[in-house]
Design brief:
Radius of gyration: 14 Å
Number of strands: 6
Structural class: alpha/beta
Strand order of the largest sheet: 3-2-1-4-5-6
Mean pLDDT: 86
Order of helices and strands: EHEHEHEHEEH
């Protein structure tokens, strides 16, 4: 059921880290609109982000340890996409501040989904994810898990 992914507006935080590039490519291949952020503003991360974004891609260099930077970048990228339906956190950076900002922006979508690769650290510190379902993607294949969960038609 590819329709469940086609035209979804997605953001991948820490897109240059770990499984990030594979997640970005899989979402794009499934027809999603994808915006990406780096996990840091270091030179190597910026180079990887630029290469992954491609010409004209929606990308933002972000220090994910800074809540203000997360908020500004998320709003900017959400505006470029016309809103957000899906957020994927592909890095451990950012913690609860990142999850809170993503949930706040996703709460505007009729079918919001929040995914974290690995352990969802910081979730216990967030009093309310605003009704946004949180899914943990784990080894060995978080990409397949993400696509399967998105294809379920938005079930929470």
């Amino acid at each position: 059921m590819v329709e469940a992914i086609h035209d979804r507006r997605c953001i991948v935080y820490g897109a240059e880290t770990g499984h990030g590039p594979a997640l970005v490519r899989a979402l794009r291949a499934a027809g999603a609109q994808v915006a990406i952020t780096s996990a840091t503003t270091e030179g190597a991360a910026l180079f990887a982000l630029k290469r992954l974004a491609g010409p004209g891609g929606a990308a933002q260099a972000v220090d994910l340890t800074n809540p203000t930077n997360i908020r500004v970048a998320t709003r900017k990228l959400a505006k470029q996409l016309g809103g957000l339906d899906v957020a994927v956190v592909a890095t451990a950076a950012g913690g609860s501040a990142l999850l809170e900002v993503a949930a706040r922006e996703l709460a505007r979508s009729p079918h919001p989904r929040l995914f974290v690769v690995g352990e969802a650290t910081g979730v216990e510190d967030i009093p309310d994810l605003r009704g946004v379902p949180l899914h943990t993607l784990s080894e060995p294949d978080p990409v397949a898990q993400l696509l399967a969960l998105l294809r379920d038609g938005g079930a929470r």
